[in-house]
Amino acid sequence: MSLYDKHVLPHLINWGCGLGAMTEQRQRIVPRARGKVLELGVGSGLNLPWYDASQVESVVGVDPTEALLVLAEPRAAASPFPVRLLAESAEKVPLESQSFDTVLLTFTMCTIPDLDAALAEMHRLLKPDGQLLFSEHGRSPDAHIRRWQDRINPLWGRVAGGCNINRPIDKLIDAAGFRIAEIDAGYLPKVPLKIAGYQYVGVAVPR
Fold it and tell me: Nearest to residue 45, comparing CAs of 77, 21, 19?
């Protein structure tokens, strides 16, 4: 791991993911979490203040970046419900099957190296009547934007911690054995760079 990845990138991610447009998206989806929650890509804990404490029993936050989990610790300690932070990858989570009512992802699917494996884990970890909540950016429906996403994605990933801007989030969720129950997709009005601003917000349930 380079010095940039270890000491600079975590703070850039914490800053960038806390910007206004992204916070607004968190406020839309995070309060819908209920019961026992697994948050994949918990990062620095930016979602923790937006949970509805009356609906949440506990949260397990998983992230592979220990430097981000250190930043999350004060937010976890201040939460009105138990929060457990785990330094693990989303592709293989060492937790019991069908043990969560909610799996939450916000701005996470773009960075998971093997997203198919991670989605399979989410399916395994959710109860049969559980819900997958997501707020993610990804592939645009507009051909000219998609072409730029595909061109820029390799460079973008190198400077943005492995972020991919061209993943078809809805199709990947559907292919992993989920049924998308709700979805709202479109460009974020406060993000002028359209290649990174096409947003998918929704709810999926196991099939």
Answer: 77
What are the structural domains, with CATH classification, of the chain? 3-206 (3.40.50.150)
Can you tell me the distance from the alpha carbon of 200 to that of 61, in angstroms, rounded to the nearest whole number? Answer: 21
**Which residues lie across from 100 on neighbouring strands?**
126
What secondary structure does DSSP assign to 45-81, as a single string?
A: -TTGGGS-TTTEEEEEEE-S-HHHHHHHHHHHHH-SS
What's the Rg (C-alpha) of the chain?
16
What does the block give as tokens for 152? Answer: 């820029």
Distance CA 192, CA 20 (A): 13
- Token pair in block for residue 36: 């026992």
Residue 14 near residue 71, CB atoms below 8 Å: yes
The reply to whether the predicted model has a pTM over 0.85 is yes
**Angle, alpha carbons 186-190-194 (nearest 5°):** 55
Q: Would you call 155 helix, strand, or coil by DSSP?
A: helix
Express each pLDDT in 118-145 by its tens digit: 999 999 999 999 999 999 999 999 999 9
